[in-house]
Structures are given as structure tokens and as C-alpha cells.
Amino acid sequence: MITLKEFRIAVRDIVSFLYASGDLSSETFQNVSALEGTKAHQYVQSHYTSEDQSEISISLMYEKNDYLLYLNGRMDGLIRQENIYVLDEIKSTRKNIFDETFTYNLEHLAQLKFYAYMYMKNEQLTDMEGRITYIQISDYKTRYFNFTFYLRDLEAFINDSIEEYLEWISIIEHYQRQKFDSIETLSFPFDTYRRGQREMMAAVYQTIKDKDILYAIAPTGIGKTMASLFSSIKALDNDRQKIFYTTAKTQGKTIALDAINLLKDKGLTIKALEITAKDTTCFLEKRNCDPNVCPFAKGFFDRLKDATIDIFSNEDILDRQTIESYAKKHEICPFEYSLYVSYFVDIIICDYNYVFDPRVHLVRYFDEFNYQPLLLVDEAHNMIQRSRDMYSATIFKSDLIKLRRLGSKLKPSIKHAIKKVLDALTVYEDRLTYAYFLSDKDIDETVYDTIRNLLTKIENSLKENSKYNNKTQILDIYFTFLAFVKIYEYYGETYLTNIYKDRDEDLIVELRCLDASKYILDTLENKAYGSTFFSATLHPIEYYKKLISQDVGETLKIKSPFPPEHLNLVLYNSVSTRYKDRDNSLDEVIKIIKETVQAKKGNYIAFFPSYQYLNQVYEKLSSDDIEIMLQEKDMGHFERHQTIDTFRSNSETSRLGLFVMGGMFSEGIDYIGDMLSGVIVVGVGLPMINELNNQLKDYYDQAFNKGFDYAYQYPGMNKVIQAVGRVIRTENDKGVAILIDDRFDTSYYRKLFPIEWKSYNRISSIKNLKKALSEFWKINQK
Ligand code: SF4
């Protein structure tokens, strides 16, 4: 007896693989968000009668060759018309559906045919009616395309489609088998575990098995990337699961890819994909996704299938370089290609926003029952700020003025629509005559309505003038306003509307989310199948748990594997770096920095809370025997790499970097061994006191009675802990960390110290500092 190979397939996957065709434009410009789509669907369904049904799950077992396929999907509607049922497939669009060139999409028709076939088989019918309902997002007008289906005709269509799809399935199935076999025999890639590594692995594994949420303090040196990936891979037990390794930095992606490559060398078969931001990976010098301009957008879907089969059959690690090389080979857009290929891989390495940002998240994995996302969130201390940003949006008045100029040759209706928005904004401008910063609980509905109207006018106008010269610049502005409208959908009690002017007197309207934990928790509880947030600096862990996922989740605190005596931590407690005391304490701060650097030749970093403070010190810090490097505002990646390389090279003298806390030199860099002998942290890292931070303070006061702590103190201390964390990166590293400010030596701050900061020296004079450093280096000098 032949054993059939069972496969679960979503109808949408088959039809998009086989029947998608044409240019990329419809996927980019016409993109409808998940929320907009759902609302439009619901609008159509709200007109159904009580005899009609909506959102009906459908499945069918289909045997073909030696496969038993479990076809499944969800029909939008089943409408009762006299004695028959009409199958309804609803599609929302930004296109003008009444345009004479508009017609139904072959992929949509194929989906309807599949559902009709499955329904007829299940209900033993020989024919049935079906329709595709297109609904315009701009005004919710609908247009129907009606069809009559006969089972005997559809038999052939379904059979041919599945025949063709099975070629692809057999490649996937072969891979899946290899993957699960290799996972079963996969052993940990090192001879020994680092201290705390096993503990973390067990916790991540259990979190996935229990579909739970975990917050883990995972100090540097325990091998957290390998621990989280290895246990997630080991927990894989069905092909619907996908591991999302999310991170805030490119460096984090590289480390994850290195770990997967190592496992691959040890015999693991797995497909992993790195998603690179659109602007970074774009092949054009200046991004212009218009298929009339970009050859990689033109006919994208016509070449996508071959490109997918090619890369899937030949590669396992689909990093940026690999994606770009196959995209070039098949002449398709690398970014959209990577998104499509993600359907078929097991590990997706990407920025947080592809999972959590409602405007860009990979909808399919988080809104459909066909996938089970397993989330690993690296450097999770960034998530509080990032989650607020992901649910906030801003518009600038200057964009409207620019738009008026760029669209001057388009229909006059655009000019009128811009004027309406500008008129609506006048209310804000008038109020700003008497205040420099306004904050409202609600947004003025007129502003919102006029922006929506403007978006529709732009969409229609560009459709009619698809080759318009300024289309790309107009689209850039369009997307900013579209993001604003999309975020408005979430506007609620944790939001404020801020209105102010920048230095150039440009009017800014911002929908500011003060707390996105409700939305993040929704993703974790209702869409993910186990989520682990980890970082070396989740101190105090309850704060992160509360502000990321409303206090829901387990916690794990792992101790640092490094001997605590390798770090000489000094609380220099006789200096105040408070703003009002800075002038008076400047000389003392400079003396401390010099004393630290001169105690032993090496590389040092002094971290400051602001550029202003940094420059103040720089201007007075003269020394012939120290090479000084300065962080400047707007430094790019190139300068960053150059500076880090300088730290790697040999030098006759000591080097001192003057950097800002929380900046590009304070996170995500491993200053290993002699690269760094010590850091001097000037001040407690408080964020700047201003209206925006005070809004957070007021909100946290009201919500948790912890205003100053949550808005200022905790984020500040996180930067301090990150800065100190640069010193000891391996078990052989030894170094000093001098924390300058009397506040560090108070219980209010000491309670936030990580557990490994148990022993520290309290020092209040240069003489004692000199002595302490000399003793430390005498013992620890190589
Ligand atoms: S290659 Fe660049 S311009 Fe072309 S579609 Fe992709 S992102 Fe757009």
C-alpha cells in the first residue's frame, strides 16, 4: 500500500504562486493595509441579509499522484439569492474600479474557482454562481463581476493547477523532510555550554511549547543568539511555524546569520532569509518603483515564480547578498522578492517593524491562521521606544506646499484638496500664535477628513497621469500622509495630537502614541506562538514587561558569565553633572577623564548625555599624550566604521573617544580585548527634559504613578548600563568603568544596577581615583 504524503496548502498560496502576473505597481502604490482591507470587507458583509453567511472556513482533501493535499481557505461570503447560493470573493483596492480599463484579476478569479470547486465537492453540487466584489477604499463603492461555474469545467482547471503546483510542492516537501531529519539529529555546535546558556535555551524552548511570552536578561557572553536560535529550531515540529529573529540593528542580523551558518556546518538543513530595508537594497540610484521607470518592477510577477524556484532549489542562507544576486539574475526587485520568498523559509531575520509595525508588518504571517510565528526579539530594551514610534505618525505643512508645486500640472482638484487641508491646519496655526507647543487629546476631524480626501484625489489623478514627471516625489509625500491616516485608525486613549513648529517655522502635526503595549500584546497573544524578548540590559525587567506587553509574560534573569572582578566599577560621587552644576564641575570631570586615561595606556570612551556637554568638555580638554576622537552629529556609517577601525589599530598613545550615550558608539559594538580599557560615564543619562518627554512622564504618572522613573530615570540608566557593557565583552577582558555623578551613589539609582554590579568603589577625590586605578591595573595588567 502506498503511503500518501500529506500536505496542508492554503488556496491563496497556490493561486498567488501560479496566477500572479504583471508589474509590481499594484503591490506598492495600490497597497491596502490589513486594517483597511478588513474594514472594507466588513462593510460589504454588513449588507448581507440574515440568510447570508460570511467568513466561512472551507477545506477539502485532494488526492493527486502520491500526495494527499489538505486544501484550505476562508470564503468571504455565501449569499442566498432565491434558491441558490452565490459565492462572494471580496477584494479591496485603491484603483478606480469604474475606469473602463478596470477588470478582474486572474489571480482573484482563480481563488474564486478554487473555493467554488471545493464548495461544490463538499455540498455535492454540479454548478454554482460566484462573484468577485471589488470595493474602492476611497469611497466604499462596489462593483461586481459575476460568474457561473460548472463542476466538470472546474475539475480540469483544479487538476491542472494542482499538477503544476505539485512540482513546487515536491521540492518543498523534499526540503521539509531533510529539515526535520536534520533537526532531530542536530546537536549543540560547541563542546561546552557557556554559563547561563542552557538555562536560556530551556526557557526559550518551553516558551514556544507553551505559546508563552518570556522576558530574559541575557548578559553579554552567554551566547544568547545561539541559545535562542538553537532552541527555537529544536522546537520546530510543523511546517506552519516560522521563526522571526527580530532586531533593531544590522549587526544583530549578522550575528544571527553567523549562528545559523554555524549550525548549517554542523549538519542542519534550514532556509533562512535576511530582510533588508527597501531603500538600502534598491537597485536604482534613487528609488522609483514606477514600472515605467524601474525595470525590476516591470513584469515582476511574470518572473517571480522562476526566481523563487531557482533560489529555493540552490540556496539555504538567503542573506542580502544572495537575494540581490538572484534578483539581478531574474531582473526583479530585491526587496519585494525577499518578501515573497519569506513564505517558503523557516527563519526570517528582520527589523522589529516587519513584525510589530501596523504599517509595514508582514500581514500574512500575523493575520492568517496558516502560519505560526515564533518571535525572538533581540536587544529588546529598544522595544518600548520603537513600539511607540511604530504606532505614531507625523505630517509637515511644508510637504503640502511642495505637493502643490509638484502637482501643478495635475488636475485642479488636487490643488483644491491641498487648500482644504491647509485651511484646516490654519486653526492650529492660529492657536500657535499664543503658544509654541499644543497638545490635544483628540485630532480635529476636519484635518483628518481633508487629508483622506487629498489622498483620494492624488490616487485618482496619478492613475490618470501614470507617466507624470513628478510622480515619485508626489508618491513619497502621499505615503507620509497615508501613514498618518493609517495610524489614525488606532487613535485612542493612549494618544495625543501634538502641534508645533520646528526651527524653520514648519508646522508639524503628530499623532503620538504614548503607550503601544495594548497592540504589541495583541500580536503576542493572538498572533504569535511563543515570544522571547531578550537583552543584556532589561533592568528592571518588570518595567520592560509592563511597557511592552502590559505586564504579561514570564521572566528569566541570567547572571553574567564573566568574573565580576574583571571590571573595576567606580562611583565617583563627589561631582554633580546636573545641568545647573555643569560649569562648576567641568574642571573636575576633565581631571577624572584624564586621570583614568593616563592610569594605563589604552583606548577609552567618555560617554556624555548630549553633544553640547561633550563639546564643552572637548574645548577644555587639551592633552598632548591623548589622541582624541569626537562623535559629531549626523555621522554616517562610513565615519562610524572608520572610528571603530581606529580603535582596532595600534597606537603610541592612549586614545579617547568622546561619544554620546545611547548613540551609534554605545550599542551593538563589541570592543573586544585591547580595543577598550575603560569607559567614563558622565551623568545619569537622563533624556532631555522637554514637552515630549514630559508627556510620557504625565502619562506614566497617571497610569502607574511612576512618571519620572519611567520617562526619565529608567531610560537614562539603560544608556548607562549599555555604555558600561562595552568594556567586558569576553571572559578575558578587563577594564574600568567610572560613573561620574553623586546620584549614582543613592539608593534611588543603585536599585537599578544589574546584579553583576554588586561590588563597586565609592570614590570622591582624584587622589583616591589614581590609587584605585593604579592598584587595579597592577593586578590586571597583561
Ligand atoms: S528595485 Fe528599487 S525602484 Fe525598483 S521596484 Fe525595487 S525598490 Fe522600487
Describe the structure.
By secondary structure, the chain is α/β, with parallel strands linked by helices. Among the domains are: 5-168, Alpha-Beta Complex (Lambda Exonuclease, Chain A); 393-513, no CATH class; 564-780, P-loop containing nucleotide triphosphate hydrolases (Rossmann fold). The protein has an eight-stranded parallel sheet, with helices on both faces. A seven-stranded parallel sheet has the order 21-22-20-23-24-19-25, sandwiched between helices. Strands 1, 2, 3, 4, 5 and 6 form a six-stranded mixed sheet that branches. A hairpin with a 2-residue loop joins strand 3 (67-81) and strand 4. Helix 1 (11-19) packs antiparallel against helix 4 (106-123). The protein is globular, with a radius of gyration of 29 Å. Iron/sulfur cluster binds at residues 24, 278, 282-284, 287-289, 294, 296-297, 333, 335.
Specify Rg, calculated over alpha carbons.
29 Å
Helix content: 40-55%
Strand content: 15-25%
Summing up helix and strand content along with how strands pair, one would put the structural category as alpha/beta
Q: What is the number of E strands?
A: 25
CATH superfamily label of one domain: P-loop containing nucleotide triphosphate hydrolases
- Bound molecule types: iron/sulfur cluster
Which residues form runs of ≥5 with pLDDT under 50?
none
Shape: globular
N-end to C-end Cα span = 71 Å
Adjacency order of strands in the biggest sheet: 10-9-11-8-12-17-7-18
Query: What is the residue-averaged pLDDT?
Result: 90
What is the subunit arrangement here? Answer: single chain
Note the total helix count. 28
CATH class of one domain: Alpha Beta
